[in-house]
Write a structure and sequence with these properties.
Two copies of one chain form a homodimer.
Chain A lengths: L1 H28 L6 H8 L13 H24 L5 H18 L1 H9 L14 H19 L8 H20 L11 H17 L2
Chain A binds a DNA duplex (30 and 30 nucleotides) through helix 1.
Chain lengths: 204, 204
Amino acid sequence: MAISDRKEREKEERRRLIIDTATKLFREHGFEKVSLRNIADQIEYSPTMIYLYFKDKNELLHALHTEGFRMLKQRFDAALASLSDPWERFKVLGETYVRFGLENPEYYELMFMSGEPMQTEMTEDAWNEGLLSHACLESEVKNCIASGYFPGHEFRILSFTVWCFVHGMVSLAIKDRLKMYEEEERESLLQRTMEIMMSFLEKK
Amino acid sequence: MAISDRKEREKEERRRLIIDTATKLFREHGFEKVSLRNIADQIEYSPTMIYLYFKDKNELLHALHTEGFRMLKQRFDAALASLSDPWERFKVLGETYVRFGLENPEYYELMFMSGEPMQTEMTEDAWNEGLLSHACLESEVKNCIASGYFPGHEFRILSFTVWCFVHGMVSLAIKDRLKMYEEEERESLLQRTMEIMMSFLEKK
DNA sequence: TTGCAAACTTAACACTGTTAATTATATTTG
DNA sequence: CAAATATAATTAACAGTGTTAAGTTTGCAA
């Protein structure tokens, strides 16, 4: 049945069109511009057409959410590809995470701060992309421990500790909570804070 | 002019009525239930009446925001009142912050994660309540340094470092990002992570 | 060619924040 | 006291949101 195959393919294509358009609006005009009607306008379909491809808006947002985690994982892989020293890899992983967050605030918000895409059915592989990035962190921490770093600490708790730290830094920054620091000072604040944190961790 | 005084007073009373009702809906049914029409229904006024007391919804949210910081500061003062040891005070401050966030997720979100109340005119004393809590943290860190803790570190950067950490922990928790950890395990994870962080800081 | 099923649209509902025009209520003035 | 005026609150409306149900068009199969 080549004919139903084609239909399947076309359906998948339109699904991608929706996601890509949403992504585009997302990147260009920020979170709030991603309304079903905006997307529909852009692709010249009726708003309700989207419901034939996504159960509701959350499910669409969840697709963007997944997209974001794919991007993050890609950055991780690219950054770590040429590095072998565990501590070096650990440090670069953290820096990559922070840079991704600061450079893609909309994605970061959707991935780690928004409540909406989380209340979709989180069964099956829906949450897998996220787990992959998390596993990435735990793996690097494990490597560090295997090389003598963080003596006497569990990799799971330690991973979570550094996640809390970098997430806190990124989310405060992108949500404009650094107004008590001078504007020009902020970048160096983030930089130096990162170094401080690393120095605390490095002490054995 | 006692008559215009009374008017002033009544106006202030109605302003408070709006804030209190918003707070109530906020606490009872969460963030999303705070719509101008919901508030208006509750106090049996028309929705547009609110605009006579607040420029727009952001300004109202900002009032709740301020309310939240007042609550937090109060908790800080209550928790620290009987403590004198700098390190003890520092630890309790952190624990109080985390507990406040976990117990008042709606307030915490508004105060530290939401973008809306921040885009009001942040001149004058509008942002003061927030600064007060921040100053509280910096003051305790300063005290620790004065007592020999954190040798060789600036209080500003160190304060920010621990803020990042606790904020990251709270915000990940209340935004349901701990699904990769077993449900029963989560509370002890937060507890132990807090301890780990403190132990890292304590090492001189 | 008719029947059917999939794809899509139109219309509507119940919300949201917000503005302009209008009415009712007080207070001040002639 | 009566008329003019300022204040307070309301109604109606606009433009936007997500979502559902009903209707329409389209293309494939019997």
